[in-house]
Design a protein that fits this description.
Layout: E1 2-8, H1 15-31, E2 33-34, E3 37-38, E4 40-46, E5 50-56, H2 64-81, E6 90-94, E7 100-104, H3 105-114, E8 122-124, H4 131-137, E9 139-141, H5 147-150
Antiparallel strand pairs: 1-5, 2-3, 4-5, 6-7, 8-9
Helix pairs in contact: 1-2
Length: 152
């Protein structure tokens, strides 16, 4: 099974930042280990907004220490690029033109009330934990996501 972690930035990466961050993440993944075993990991920056880490646990199991190492590299990126990767109060969704928007929970709630965001609006479910969920349940209609229980 492939394990996935999705970190949403608090703003969009610029193109130079994407290149800088991807190079740092690629170097990290090459050295990423769990109790001395090389992890079959991958890191990608999606839509200039999300850092997605994947590990094939059939090759080697992830441990607490290896997860700590990934958090450490993300915190270094935050500092280096002055970007937040652990702010859970922002909601990302696709607007009517299919552009990705990033807003606070309050703004998202207001957009729901105004009808700008509705049950068919595509939202990003950053709680996906496996590659299968990432592929099929990451970009989903609001009505099928955890958002539906929070934003009525």
């Amino acid at each position: 099974m492939k394990k996935v972690w999705i970190y949403q930035a608090d703003r969009f990466f610029t193109q130079p930042e994407v290149q800088e961050a991807q190079a740092k993440l690629d170097a990290f993944v090459e050295e990423w280990t769990a109790h001395g075993s090389q992890l079959a990991g991958k890191a990608e920056i999606k839509y200039n907004l999300f850092v997605v880490l994947t590990v094939d646990e059939e090759v080697a199991q992830v441990t607490g220490c290896s997860i700590d190492k990934s958090v450490r590299i993300l915190k270094e990126l935050e500092e280096q690029l002055n970007i937040g990767l652990f702010n859970r109060t922002l909601i990302s969704y696709r607007d009517n033109e299919n552009n990705i928007q990033l807003v606070s929970r309050d703004v998202f709630e207001a957009l729901c009330e105004e009808g700008e965001v509705n049950s068919d609006t595509i939202v990003f479910n950053n709680l996906a934990q496996t590659e299968a969920d990432y592929q099929s349940k990451w970009e989903i209609p609001l009505k099928d996501s955890w958002h539906a229980t929070v934003f009525k």
